[in-house]
Amino acid sequence: xxxxxxxxxxxxxxxxxxxxxxxxxxxxxxxxxxxxxxxxxxxxxxxxxxxxxxxxxxxxxxxxxxxxxxxxxxxxxxxxxxxxxxxxxxxxxxxxxxxxxxxxxxxxxxxxxxxxxxxxxxxxxxxxxxxxxxxxxxxxxxxxxxxxxxxxxxxxxxxxxxxxxxxxxxxxxxxxxxxxxxxxxxxxxxxxxxxxxxxxxxxxxxxxxxxxxxxxxxxxxxxxxxxxxxxxxxxxxxxxxxxxxxxxxxxxxxxxxxxxxxxxxxxxxxxxxxxxxxxxxxxxxxxxxxxxxxxxxxxxxxxxxxxxxxxxxxxxxxxxxxxxxxxxxxxxxxxxxxxxxxxxxxxxxxxxxxxxxxxxxxxxxxxxxxxxxxxxxxxxxxxxxxxxxxxxxxxxxxxxxxxxxxxxxxxxxxxxxxxxxxxxxxxxxxxxxxxxxxxxxxxxxxxxxxxxxxxxxxxxxxxxxxxx
Length: 468
Hints:
This protein is of the alpha/beta class. It folds into 3 domains: 2-82, MurE/MurF, N-terminal domain (Udp-n-acetylmuramoylalanyl-d-glutamate--2,6- Diaminopimelate Ligase, Chain: A, domain 1); 86-313, UDP-N-acetylmuramoyl-L-alanine:D-glutamate ligase (3-Layer(aba) Sandwich), CATH 3.40.1190.10; 321-467, Protein-Tyrosine Phosphatase, Chain A. It contains 16 helices and 23 strands. It has an 8-stranded mixed β-sheet with strand order 8-7-6-9-5-10-11-12, sandwiched between helices. The protein has a 6-stranded mixed β-sheet with strand order 16-17-21-18-19-20, sandwiched between helices. The N and C termini lie far apart (65 Å). Belongs to the MurCDEF family. MurE subfamily. Pfam families: Mur_ligase, Mur_ligase_C, Mur_ligase_M. It catalyses: UDP-N-acetyl-alpha-D-muramoyl-L-alanyl-D-glutamate + meso-2,6-diaminopimelate + ATP = UDP-N-acetyl-alpha-D-muramoyl-L-alanyl-gamma-D-glutamyl-meso-2,6-diaminopimelate + ADP + phosphate + H(+).
């Protein structure tokens, strides 16, 4: 096998596929593209010992060039050997879907830990090995980073590995070589169409988790209240469990009662426990997440006591997070940045508020434009007043993004303030007794991307400053 020959014949200190991050002694993988040779030259100048490429080597680089049929396939094979096949020593579990991945992953990690298993977590908010927390840049990291992290998890004594699997990572093969013991599907709503182009492509990318990466004896847990979830359940041939908060006929696990309040949820689910189960997580969308993960926990043998303990103690930063509450006015920070997520958050906030409901939100730049006017309409219909502002404008003009948003709004119940800080300040100062304010879009993020630069920006900090 070529991978074994490469590793046997070269003294390799590390693996890299980004020429900007090459260290002396690295083996560099030149991904196919117009600039692959330029990147290869740069990598070698930084001290790479050799280049793995799938195009013919330029004459001056021939002695350092390893020609392979597929760089992507070779990269996965080399990573598996170099890092001593870490995923064979871990029980890997993944959750995918448009909304709910982060909360579900936190719940999964908490239930496994409560059950006495040392667990590693990879997700949007952070990476964790046991109690050690590491900042995270991508929902699902690149394959080399993923394998290196898994090797660290094995070295630290982890038995289980939980991760959010994004549609990009599944489509790009960033989880290649992993065989998951379990896979969860939360829902599929409009997002990332700048990348996938159509909802069908988006669905097919998500489906790969269950058809390509799930182990033959693995289990799939699927929310069939979602139309794509229902379709996925019908189309896959593996051990599978259907979950329905709405009690769809034929669903294997469904609640007989759900009580919801500002203090959390109480779910009665006879298939999981004889007595009701409580959680501090709030809202119907969290009922979906809780039901999905409880069903998964039951399927993989986590004890009822561990399920209950995790649900009482888990906290998820930036997911319907009560940032300010003086008993009269309440301000929620939430990561909602898709039409479905914004609609769900506003619906729950509406059910809890005694006064007016307001929202501060924007849309990210260089991303799916089609959802902007939809989110404008949802904010207008779901709240009494909306402040339309900037999110992460990236390389787009904030005013152009806002123009797209307000094209879906037809009342005078909104105000445009381009500065996110100013919009939050004004929204906070406008609150009266009994009012609820939702600040949506950024959640746990403590930065704002303007152009290609990250600037420190934290919704929570501004809210706490303005409300005191």
